[in-house]
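seq:
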Amino acid sequence: MTLLWIFVSIIAAILAIVTIVDIVQRHYSGGKTALWIVLVVIFPFLGSIAYWALRRPAPGEAEAAYLEQSELHRTGAEGRHRP
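struct:
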């Protein structure tokens, strides 16, 4: 049972760190940044899930995802598996 809690704690810490790094890099207002960080620190799983669910993609992220998908369709690489 201890091994399970260690594993869950490591996953929670990694998830919280990745979420906090993303919050800081997004350049929200000071209050919004502080609120999200406090929420993620107090409730690592719930706060991170809420942040990622409510987070709007940056303008460049949406365009990059669209271009990547169109490139996959153009080359026909989607759905093919290499042996």
